[in-house]
Amino acid sequence: MTEPTPTRAQRFAAIVVPAAERAGYTGFGAKSRFSKDTGMTDSSVTRLWQGTSLPDARFYAAISEVTGIDLGTLLVEGGVLSHESLRSLSETDRSQVRSNFTIEEAAQRLGLDEVGQQLLVATAERLKRLQDNDASDRPERGGASAQM
């Protein structure tokens, strides 16, 4: 007999759980720490670990951050983006990326549903904050590290 095809939630768990374990989420309290670090509820983390449900898309950026999994991989495996949409994002000509439309308009042009649009906007905002924080921490820029 052939094995049943894994569900999307099971495939997602098969990627996230080992990466979380490699990132140190092991032993007693691992799920609770993962919950705290991603902003997810304990019960959502348990369902993710069991492969019974997908997390809400708004947590994908945080999951990516704590596990080191590429955000694009999570978006595709979670069903938020298709491989084709992700490919078109990565193959976009630089001149188009620097055009005058907003991230919201870019999400719409990609044909993302409402959740995908919100996730793309939130991810872009988070990346900008991380970049700004990273720049302010560099001594040559006079950030917090330089003052210590």
Task: Determine the number of helices (DSSP H or I, runs of at least 4 residues).
Answer: 10
Element-by-element helix/strand order: HHHHHHHHHH
* β-sheet strand percentage: under 5%
> Strand tally, please?
0
Q: If you average the pLDDT, what whole number results?
A: 81
Which residues form runs of ≥5 with pLDDT under 50?
Answer: 93-98, 141-148
The helix-and-strand class reads mainly alpha
Please estimate the helix content. 55-70%
Measured on Cα atoms, how large is the radius of gyration?
A: 18 Å
Question: What general form does the structure show?
Answer: globular
Our measurement of the CA-to-CA distance between the termini, rounded to an integer number of angstroms, reads 65 Å
Instruction: Report the biggest beta sheet as strand number plus sense, adding barrel if it closes.
Output: none
Summary tags:
148 residues, mainly alpha, disordered C terminus
Q: Gist?
A:
With 148 residues, this protein is an all-alpha fold. The chain has helices at 8-22, 30-38, 42-50, 60-67, 71-77, 83-90, 94-97, 103-109, 114-137, 144-147. Helix content is 64%, strand content 0%.
Please tell me about this protein's structure.
With 148 residues, the protein is mainly alpha-helical. The chain is 64% helix and 0% strand. It has helices at 8-22, 30-38, 42-50, 60-67, 71-77, 83-90, 94-97, 103-109, 114-137, 144-147. Helix 2 (30-38) crosses helix 3 (42-50) and helix 8 runs antiparallel to helix 9 (114-137). The termini are far apart. The model is unreliable at 93-98 and 141-148 (pLDDT under 50).
